[in-house]
Specification:
The chain has 5 helices and no strands. By secondary structure, it is mostly helical. The radius of gyration is 38 Å and the shape is elongated.
Length: 146
Amino acid sequence: MMAEPPPTFDGSNNDEELPDSGEREEEEGDLMSTLDKLEEAEIEIEIDDEEKKIPVEDDDEPDEVEQFSDELSNMDETGRNMAFTCFKKISQYILDAYDMLADMQDKKIFVDYLITNLKLYFDKFEDELQKEVDEPTTDQYDSMKT
């Protein structure tokens, strides 16, 4: 096994000649002009199959709030947004608790009691709502009125 001598870079051991600086500048200029032409080229792609199109903007599909509030569109937006936030939090807690159950009988009991408890809370909330609200007043108003 013979060791090869290290290559020298003085030009005496090279089979190929390096281009001179004028040739290199000309090749770089050609390359740059070709790149400029490619950047300026207008490319149009037509897709006939609608299923293959990927939505580019988020506006193409309704967001979760819009889907949640389809029936609430004529009501207060702030209330709708708060209801959506509460719904997301509560639904996640319920789903997490349900996912922890392994036995099918436990899942059935969970659903039954969930519905029962929700209905009881709704009844409680309805009872707390007053049909008539007392008009708020202040001592200054009462003294001025009498």
